[in-house]
Amino acid sequence: MVAQNFEPALACVNVHEGGKDDDKRDPGGRTAYGVTQARYNQYLRDQGRPRADVWDITVRERVAIWRTYYWDVMRADELPAGLDYAVFDGGVNSGPAQAAKWLQRAVNDVRAKSGEGPILVDGQMGTNTLAAVNRIDDIDAVIAAMQDRRLAMLHNLKTWAVYGKGWSRRVNDVRKLAQSVARGSVVLAPPPGWTTAPGKALPSDAKPLPSATSGAVTSAVGTASSAVSSAATALQPAQGASKTLDTVLVVLLVLGGLLAAAGAAWAWWASRKAKRMAADLDIAPPPALANDNALVPAEMTA
Questions:
Q1: Which residue stretches belong to region Disordered (predicted)?
Q2: Cα–Cα distance measured from residue 197 to residue 18, given in angstroms and rounded to the nearest whole number
Q3: Does residue 290 have a pLDDT over 60?
Q4: How many Cα neighbours within 13 Å face the side chain of 66?
Q5: 3-205: CATH superfamily
Q6: Which end of the chain has fewer surrounding CB within 10 Å, N or C?
Q7: How far is Cα 282 from Cα 204, in angstroms, rounded to an integer?
Q8: How far apart are CA 56 and CA 232, in angstroms?
Q9: Phi and psi at residue 157, in whole multiples of 5°?
């Protein structure tokens, strides 16, 4: 646990967040140095001050926002060196609750390898989550698992095509630096060559999950299958009347079978894809908690 890591961690985050931005494709909206207009409004409201343009934000206000609404909320001072930065960067880009979920699932990934039961995944940095983290010796593995989960979620966001290249670079940068800090091989500071990777990566901006029972593909297959079935039914009374009609009927029956198979294949694929996306987006039900997991009770309040 390194309480003095806030400033160097913020220096690293600042490089990736960049300066002022008002990209209509960015779900974060109008931002300045990573601070959204919505967050700035909240800060000013909490200070009893009137609203103002986030582009007029001061350095002092930015630091206060990052400390109060991110670093302190995620209790980063109580996390091991390296991991504190990884959690902070994830929280800045995707929200503190999402960063906490990535950490909790990463902890469960590492615990599972040693046969331990999972902790609750609730997006809250509670006492038991911190206790579980600080019982793990291999923080390097936690950082790696967390970044893997982070990147998996980013792949499933609507704006991946716009910001994906920068996000991939950012996640890789965070992984390398955080792991090096955790190993004690470097001090926390932005390495030369880092560049901006803009775009808020919010779970609320996720692509829709594919459905096995609705959507354009299901509708098209269903319509085509229905049309083929109707045509085959209409021709059956004339079966044997001519070779041409018999051939057409056989073709329709085969086509109907192929469409049915295509529909079943789509349903299978859509179901599997939806489950994977739900897990990557942290909207899947958490695993059943082990009855003997002493770390669970105090956080089972959600």
A1: 193-215
A2: 7
A3: no
A4: 29
A5: Chitosanase, subunit A, domain 1 (1.20.141.10)
A6: C
A7: 11
A8: 70
A9: -95, 150
Sheet of 35-36: strand order equals 20-21, 31-32, 35-36
pLDDT in tens, 112-123: 999 999 999 999
| Distance, CA of 52 to CA of 7 (rounded, Å) | 25
Say how far apart CA 247 and CA 269 lie, in whole Å.
Answer: 33
> Is the pTM for the entire model greater than 0.90?
no
What is the per-residue burial (b if ≥16 Cβ within 10 Å, else e) of 74-87? bbbebbbbbbbbbb
Strand partners, 157: 206
Distance from C-alpha of 140 to C-alpha of 130, rounded to nearest angstrom: 16
Cβ burial, residue 216 (10 Å; 0-12/13-18/19+): exposed
SS (H, E, C) 110-149: HHHHCCCCCCCCCCCCCHHHHHHHHCCCCHHHHHHHHHHH
- Provide the pLDDT for residue 235: 56
